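Entry 12.
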Amino acid sequence: MMKYILASASPRRRELLTQAGIEYTVIPSKVEEKISKTIPSDVVMELALLKAEDVFDRHGDEDCTVIGADTVVVYRNEILGKPGDEEEACDMLSMLSDRTHQVYTGVALVSMENGQKKVRTFYERTDVTFYPVSRGEIAAYAATGDPLDKAGAYGIQGPFAVHIRGIEGDYNNVVGLPIARLYQELKKDCTKASAPKYKRLVFEE
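Predicted 3D structure (tokens):
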């Protein structure tokens, strides 16, 4: 029976996996996040792979697939990380107000096949457009502390949702994990002889 390990402590990613009916355990990566890439899609896949390989090397086996993920917000080719404080969060959100930006999530799957480590990476991109947001609205949101642990200083599934004009692409990708794409990728590895363990879903040939 295939086991799944999520190499992330993100409650949002855990929630998405649970909603999909996938049984998993959580072992957060301890690796230092260093990047050698500059293109956003390459950056998120590189970081996702770093996390997944770190956990697999410590806890992986023949019956295990480790899922790593990383999400970034990009505006005009600049990657926006997590704000350091409320002031930085306000600056980021003011910059994104009434504009369209991109959210990239990279996913890495690390497993063992015929005694060899098997690695697969992919990414999804979603365009997100904000309504105009006043400085007062931004300051009130920043004061809640919600933006401080989120790339780009906002969470689409939280109170800031009222300022989202629209999205083009996968909503869950913005939350932190393109769960539908992940499901399709996991299906590729499924056989009746070694079906992944799901609470509610069953892969069928």
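Annotation: The two ends are 17 Å apart (CA to CA). The mean pLDDT is 90.
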